[in-house]
Amino acid sequence: MAKKAKAKTAKTAAKSKKAKTVAKTATKAAKKTKITRREYTKEDIKELRAHSKARTPVAQIAKMTKRTVGSLRQKALKLGIGLGHQR
């Protein structure tokens, strides 16, 4: 009877180890890369103004410039130009 109990606990321990390993792997994959800040150049500002006049969607501008939507909106706000619903 003691052998059966030991075998069951060994199986349970092996399953919990697998679960922990899977959880660790999932956590590693979910980690984000560190964001590095890039300053806006004069060319970036010209491009942003042109997109504002052309009424290009903010999501599309973000993909083209490789910047976040929030970053673009903040810069546009500081420059006094409209993006998105503010136009």
TrEMBL record:
What name does this protein carry?
Answer: Uncharacterized protein
| Annotated spans, Disordered | 1-35
Q: Which domain of life is it from?
A: Bacteria
Residue ranges, compositional bias (Basic residues): 1-21
